[in-house]
Amino acid sequence: MTGTGTGGTAADIRAADEDRVFAALANATRREVLRLLRNEGPQPVQALADHFAMRRPSLSEHLKVLREAGLVSEQRSGRRRIYRLEAAPLAEVQDWLHPYERFWRERLKGLGELLDRMPDDDRP
Amino acid sequence: MTGTGTGGTAADIRAADEDRVFAALANATRREVLRLLRNEGPQPVQALADHFAMRRPSLSEHLKVLREAGLVSEQRSGRRRIYRLEAAPLAEVQDWLHPYERFWRERLKGLGELLDRMPDDDRP
DNA sequence: TTGACGCGTAGGCAAACCCCTACCTATTGT
DNA sequence: ACAATAGGTAGGGGTTTGCCTACGCGTCAA
Question: Pfam families in the record, alphabetically (chains A, B) (predicted)?
Answer without folding.
Answer: HTH_20
